[in-house]
Design goal:
- By secondary structure, this protein is an all-alpha fold.
- The chain has helices at 2-7, 11-24, 28-38, 47-53, 59-72, 78-84, 90-103, 109-118, 122-133, 137-201, 205-218, 223-233, 238-251, 256-268, 272-285, 292-302, 306-316, 322-338, 343-358, 362-375, 380-392, 396-409, 414-426, 430-443, 448-461, 464-477, 484-497.
- Helix 21 (380-392) runs parallel beside helix 23.
- The longest helix has 65 residues, at 137-201.
Amino acid sequence: MIRSLQNYRDEEKIIDPLINIVSRDTDLIVRREAAKFLATFSDKRILRAFNKVISHSDLEIRQTAIKVLETFKDPSSTEALIYALGDDNSEISFRAAICLLSMKEIKALDEIFKLLERQTSPEMHSKLNDAIKALDTSYIEDWHKEKEKVEIKKLKKKEIKTVIYLIIFILIAVVVTKMYLDTSKGRTLKKLVSEGQTYLEQYDFENALVCFNRAMEIEPDSPEIIYCVGNTYICVDKVKARLYLKKAIDLKKDYPEALMAMGRLYLIENNFKEAINYLEESINLNNKLPMVHIYLGRAYYKSGNKAKAEEIFNLAQSSSDESTYRSAKVWIKKLRGEKSPIKQKIKTLLDRGESLFKQGDYSLSSQAFLEAITLNPDDSRGYSGMGRVHLNRKNYNMSLKYFLEALDCNPLDIESLCNVAYIYIQEDDTREALRSLGMAAEVDSSYSKIHYLRGLLYYKKGEKEKALKELKFYLNIEPFGEYFEEIKRLIKEIEKEYNL
């Protein structure tokens, strides 16, 4: 084939086939012959092949290629010639260097100097050195300038790279720190809310508020946390409770828990119409909320619609929530007791028991209360009377038993709740005392005795400032109430101790 092409002298038609053979043919002998033949052409297109094969493994082909590149000295061959500077054959590398020097390729000088250093042939070393010395000084100066530029670029590139790495490091540090803080913040938030809920379940409103307020400092716009604060304030400060609950509802529409809490608030305030509206709206969104049916039943009961209340309580008895189920049973029992056909006789006995109790005749008073209990075991008043009899005798165990029976019949018996709290205070059971006072506050947070008992509890715990606050609050509500003398004595002791 090569021979046929050699006989065909039309360069335009044979040059491309030859380039393909030199560049790609798998037969080494054919490629050598084609390279030799192609080297005889003066068309610059042949450089496409020889720029490529200068890196070929065959020495003969590389020798042909360097010869062609020397002939043309074309800028398109610069990269190929620079590559040839590293050729294992010292003659090819030397010839490439001389060619590049004659082309005054500035970017090749670095590699040429390296070649000079590793040149082992004294003759070639001398010739190459002379060729470098023979260069125009302006060329060397340009090379130095170019090298300086390259070095500056390298330095700048290094600086930029350093800055980029620094920025990346800072960004990573910021992201990692944020992730850590977010995780830490999330854990702290979760812990605070959990602790607050625990305190709330124990009716320890003060510590619950401490936890929830700290959580709100971390997430000030969280409707869930705002709800927790409002829900806690229900039994402490109704104005604040309404403010926070309204904000929670504004932030999160269709928030059944917050709606239920608002319903509870209106229930405590005896605004039964609003209580029913909020509680029914809450149930429409989530009828599985614990105690929501109990609150709704209470609202209907206190509004005078006992039939509707009974319907709600009967429905609540099917709840899977234990507290809802138990409360529903108690309310059904209470309603059943109110329907007793011997109400007048029971009332007479209870009135007699109260009269004898006030006279200090606890024995006859007990007989009247016990007879009332026998006639109607579902009426809380007989149990409450017996509880007070034993309380005056300081028989706390029996007293507690009767008060709990009274509450089993009527969970809204605020006086029994307060008396239970008083017994726990005397027995130094702070947790149960707070729990009973919390339940009493849910019935009526403005009931003055709650504040007296809280003051007494704090006094016994040694928290005198809190005690003083609660006791003075009682005096503001009832300046000359039942516990006036006792409270004045306690206040005097506290003020003396603190030099107030």
